[in-house]
Amino acid sequence: MRRKRLQKETREWVNEGIISSEQEAMILNRYLNKNRHFLLIIFASLFIGLGFLTFIASNWSFIPAYGKMAIILCSMLAFYLSGEYVYRKKSTMVGMSLIIIGLLIFGAGIFLTGQMYHYTYAQATPFVIWSLASFFLFVAYQHAPIFVVAIVITTVGQLYSAFTFHSFNVWLCFLLLLAFGHYTYHQARYLYSYLFAASFVIQSLVFIGVERSEYYWLLIFMFLLYIIGDVSKKVVIHEAFRAVSLLSLFVLAIVHVFILGEDFFFYEDREFNLFFMIVWSLLFVAFITLKVAFKQYNHLTELALFLPVFYIAFGDMVAMLCLFIFSLGLLINGYQEENNNLIMFGTGAFLISTLIAYVHIAWAFLDKSLFFFIGGIILFAFSYFLERKRRMVRKSKGGAGK
Amino acid sequence: MRRKRVLFFVVVVLQCLFLLGMVCSYYLIDDFGKTIQLKTVPVDPQDIFYGDYIILRYEIEEIDRAKWTGTEEPSYHERIFTLVADDNGDGIYQVIQASSEEMIADAGQVVLEGRYEYQDMHEGTYFVDYGLGRYYIEDNTGERYERSGELIVSVAVAPWGQKKIVTVEPE
């Protein structure tokens, strides 16, 4: 993208006689197209790793144990060493993907060796080892693809721990918070911050699911994520953590709309929990303080999603109201800042809120065909008005620009 | 840059050592472990031969409530420690005590680590899986074990908790 823009400029410079075409070529060579398709490379290496795995797996039982170990160790070393060589001498990205394959073989190797020698695990130990290895590889190279693979291994390990052992693995949690957290904070890249926040959400879901805590502690974890993002004072982290936290809470609010109105909803879970309220109040005070300190008063509508609606009568209705307050807040901020992205998100949130409210209220007593019919019309009408308003903003912004 | 390369090689070497360590520790059980005899109970279905392995169910997998000192209702797959000893003097090890807390074995006793499976409320027993349920056998030796009801299984238990089946013999 950047190179294309530069190319356009340099062509003009050549035409205007500022530089010669040789000089143009030299300048452009300094901005060689950077390979940003590392996601493709990650998938490519994943596929090759899987192919390797399935091939060996289908012939596995015919190979003696020492032969299997030799295959695992040799292939792992071959990929690592060739990866290191290619990384230094030829291509960073190809080298990186070879190293990633080596890492995947190591992970497969732990499980295969465990299977060969009848290891039984009481915890997700293989994943802890694998995550540690991938983390240190990231430290050695500090490249985005390894970060992605490493944090995915850590998160999948936590899910594995939940599904296989019904327990929350503390080591994987520490690894995320301290090790990955360190680099997320210091390098402050969007990719790292979003991945960290997503892994944080998944790990807190696992924690709540398997430790049989009341589900509403999720609210505290999301609140924490939000506050940490605010406190970090780094725009990238602030934006990523805030977005992920709000998105999770938006989903939680939708769940609340549907479950809080039902009688079957486990009543004991809604009993007043003092400790929860104390923690929540502290975070609430922190939220207000930060917003006042940074003068971000327009973020105050986001507070709607943090309210513990499950303690209130008609919690489902209040949750619905919160969804609208939040969506409208986004929309209004978007229009005020003339920020098209924000308007787009606000529009989406508002339409979803409308849909949820409509389904929740009208499903029970409207004739089904009428239900869909009217719902469609309402959504059409809203999207029409919102889109028109958005275009107006765009136009006025464009006009101001000229 | 040089330091990072060193780190890379250290990480790779450690990974190799880890995998090799997994293999070695399996063979070291023979040298450092203590071998105990466990009795199996008949399995349903009668044919326990499953191609390349046979299925084994042990007496010690079923733990009487009187010998249970752990939490009343452990969570599924929780870590369980079972103290076994040859109390009857017939060479077969039996459950002395089982708990979710770690235990120290006296002379003649062995602690086995397992995972909690489920509870039979009616019989008042807890079920624990020790990860010894499968015995991998060499080709074409399966007939030896077919339809044999009770077997004596020799298990080697290493001081670091790892265990493996040494032999499976008909009673």
UniProtKB/TrEMBL annotation, chain A:
Fetch the Pfam families from UniProt: DUF2157
Q: Which UniProt keywords apply?
A: Membrane, Transmembrane, Transmembrane helix
Q: Which InterPro entries match?
A: DUF2157 (IPR018677)
Keyword Zinc found: no
Q: Where are the transmembrane segments?
A: 38-57, 63-81, 93-117, 129-156, 168-185, 191-208, 215-231, 243-260, 272-294, 306-330, 342-363, 369-386
Organism's domain of life? Bacteria
Its lineage reads: Bacteria, Bacillati, Bacillota, Bacilli, Bacillales
What is the protein's given name?
Membrane protein
Describe the location of the DUF2157 domain by residue ranges: 12-145
Determine if Transmembrane is one of this entry's keywords.
yes
UniProtKB/TrEMBL annotation, chain B:
What InterPro entries does the entry give?
Answer: GDYXXLXY
Quote the Pfam families the UniProt record gives: GDYXXLXY
Task: Return the protein name.
Answer: Membrane-anchored protein
**Can you name the source organism?**
Aquibacillus albus
Q: What is the lineage of its organism?
A: Bacteria, Bacillati, Bacillota, Bacilli, Bacillales
